[in-house]
Amino acid sequence: MPRTILPGDATGEFFREIGGTMRHVAMALALRIPPLRRLHTQRDTLVRERDAIQARLDLERVRCAGTEARTPFWFYNSAFDAIALMKKYQAADVPPKAGHLGNYLGVYTHIRFFPGILDCREGQVDAGLPLPANWHTDIVEWGAALRAVDLSGPVFTVMELGCGWGCWLNNTGAAARRAGKKVRLIGIEGEPVYVDFAREACATNGFQPDEVTIIHGVAASRKGAALFPTQTVEGASWGLEPVFGASEQQRREAAVSGSHVEVPMLPLSDLIPEGMSLDLLHMDIQGGEADFVRDCIATLNRSVAYLVIGTHSREIEGQLFHLLSGAGWIPEIERPCIFTLNGKECFTTVDGVQGWRNPALRP
């Protein structure tokens, strides 16, 4: 019998149709076998579940992309990969702890330290990376603080000025300890209640008494007396600003009214004596940072390898760039403070952060 020859692409189409028909017939026959029918049904179910999950992921990406576009915490400058550094020190399987909130480094904060903020977080763990920020800070401050840990040697020494509950003592100390380093944690705090918070937090997070020093006072460029505002509810106010170099009249009025408690002004040169060096100095001193750096630059140059500064105005940030760059320091990461415009004036709503490396100690 002579062969039928179909012109052009018709030959391919003819055999594709036959092949398709045969596959349908084979599938129909196969589905009459109960085990194969069950497998086919399970496959269809899994495909539908996969598609539903993918749709939710796509929706979440769109939502997150919109969030990234709105939040200012994604916008920062850095000479290193801050997020990779956060991942490097991330703890695995952080267990919950009664009365506390745990974080991705395995550090616990008692919920009573922040009434009204952490009240509903008792026994929870924020195990994921805080991107771009969490309840108290953002990528830049995490990255800057961990950069100091990363650059340090076998013993990590940190001093936190205005340490509060010891946030950066505990977080950098935990990261350094996980890296196999010995730690020395030094906190300076003017609020008496927060001095107790810091000691408690360090003990909770497993640091031994000989590893921790918490000093009641405020860091300054010279000796004197400062007045630190009192608060009626423990943990209700963070970022209280002391009155430095209080006069005798101010001290008497504060004692009578109870509005302030008198605390010693501690010169940085005394806190970091000759022969002592810090891997990290973290300072958040509520608006006095430029004056403090200007007055203490000699001590910073000789004794501090890395400096993380909370900033409180664009003017202060410019002054810090002038002062520290002029002294040979290298800016490695920064996010400017965030302010609000109301049509008449601007005021800072979120502190800025700067991270500086001292090439004299960390080439």
Could you give a quick summary of the protein structure above?
This protein is an alpha/beta fold and 363 residues long. The chain is built from 10 helices and 16 strands. It is 40% helix and 21% strand.
Secondary-structure map:
Layout (H helix, E strand, L loop, with lengths): L9 H21 L3 H37 L6 E2 L3 H7 L11 E3 L5 E3 L13 E2 L13 H13 L3 E7 L5 H12 L3 E8 L2 H13 L7 E5 L1 E3 L3 E6 L18 H10 L2 E8 H4 L8 E4 L5 H15 L2 E6 L2 H13 L3 E6 L2 E4 L4 E5 L1 E6 L6
Parallel strand pairs: 2-4, 5-6, 5-11, 6-7, 8-10, 11-12
Antiparallel strand pairs: 1-13, 2-3, 9-10, 12-16, 13-16, 14-15
Helix pairs in contact: 3-4, 4-5, 9-10
Query: Spans of 5+ residues with little confidence (pLDDT < 50)?
Result: 1-8
Major sheet strand order: 1-13-16-12-11-5-6-7
| Count of discrete alpha- or pi-helical segments spanning 4 or more residues | 10
Outline the biggest β-sheet: 8 strands, mixed
Count of strand segments:
16
Structural class: alpha/beta
Strand portion: 15-25%
Q: Quick check: average pLDDT?
A: 85
Spatial gap, N to C terminus: 89 Å
- Dominant shape: elongated
Rg from alpha-carbon coordinates: 30 Å
Order of helices and strands: HHEHEEEHEHEHEEEHEHEHEHEEEE
Helix content: 25-40%
Structural summary, described in words:
This protein has helices at about 10-30, 35-70, 80-90, 140-150, 165-180, 190-205, 250-255, 270, 290-305, 315-325, and strands at about 75-80, 100, 110, 125, 155-160, 180-190, 210-215, 220, 225-230, 260-265, 280-285, 305-310, 330-335, 340, 345-350, 350-355. By secondary structure, the protein is α/β, with parallel strands linked by helices. Strands 1-13-16-12-11-5-6-7 form an eight-stranded mixed beta sheet, sandwiched between helices. The protein is elongated and about 100 Å long.
